[in-house]
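task queued by scheduler; priority normal; single chain, no ligands, no partner chains; default sampling; output format set to structure tokens
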Amino acid sequence: MIKMYIKPDCSTCRTAVKLVSENSSEELETIQYLVDTPSEKEIREIIKMLGIKPIELVRKKEALYKEKYMDKKISDAEWIKILHKHPILIERPIVIYHDRAIIGRPPQTIVSFLNS
């Protein structure tokens, strides 16, 4: 099964869902992360699968980031709490396949990820 965290009105997310559907016979579970917010534990697991620091999962183009968090010293643990409290700050789409994950930007990277 492939799990994908998406925002339905995001064109990149819609493209990613289409690419997965066209390039994989695996079942796809989509999670609207603004509705079904990942727990802090799930965010830590996603970050571990991505092999990144929490700050690398933050959408830096979001107004909330620019207004409240940009240029501040924030620990990894604090970022995880912030991402849980304000899921709009989570970069998207996130694709999880087995024990690996990728941020699907650009969406075309997802096809090679699924085939590797």
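post-processing summary
- The beta strands are 2-6, 28-32, 94-97, 100-103.
- Helices lie at 11-23, 40-50, 63-69, 76-85, 109-115.
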